Amino acid sequence: MGHHLFRRPKHRRYRDMGGYYEGDDHSGYRERRALPVLNIPTSVIVAGLVIWSALSLGAWWLVDPVLSWISGAAGPLADTGAGLAKWFGLGEEATALRDAANIEGLLGWAGGSIHFLVRTVVLLVWVAGLIALIAIPAVLRRGQRRQ
């Protein structure tokens, strides 16, 4: 078990020394040298968590204004599209399609669901970021120990 971690080097120095490094116990295993331990100060982690939480809170607060802006702009944009279609000679068809689609009513109906989904996504991304920020130091330390 674990023998794959201690492969014998193939370079010349190893062969010239009879197969063992200085300090070996002649069992084929070398002493493992201690690697420098990566220490990320707790204050840096806490600062990262505070910044990440502030960004997420800003996104949380922007959900309402952005969705309100989109729903408020939908009617005028549909009217602009109908006016543009009228300029190309498709005015009646575009107006009928705009009235049948009922863009304002559709956005009003779907607004609650979209609001819930967007806020849920913001919350899930925030939690994933918190977990990642907390786990990064442990992952980096473990990665350095394996080298």
Notes on the structure:
It is built from 4 helices and no strands. The protein is an all-alpha fold and 147 residues long. Helix 2 crosses helix 3 and helix 2 packs antiparallel against helix 4. The longest helix is centred in the middle third of the chain and has 46 residues. It starts with 11 loop residues before the first helix and ends with a helix. The model has no long low-confidence stretch (mean pLDDT 76).
Beta-strand percentage range = under 5%
State the major sheet: none
In total, how many beta strands?
0
Helix proportion: over 70%
Number of helical regions: 4
- Report Rg: 31 Å
Shape: elongated
Structural class, from secondary structure content? Answer: mainly alpha
The sequence of SSEs as H and E is: HHHH
**Mean pLDDT score, rounded?**
76
The rounded distance between the terminal residues' Cα atoms is 18 Å
Low-confidence stretches: none
Task: Give the structure's gist in a few sentences.
With 147 residues, this protein is mainly alpha-helical. It is built from four helices and no strands. The relative contact order is 0.11.
What's the layout of helices and strands?
Elements lengths: L11 H5 L25 H46 L3 H11 L1 H44 L1
List keywords for this structure.
147 residues; mainly alpha
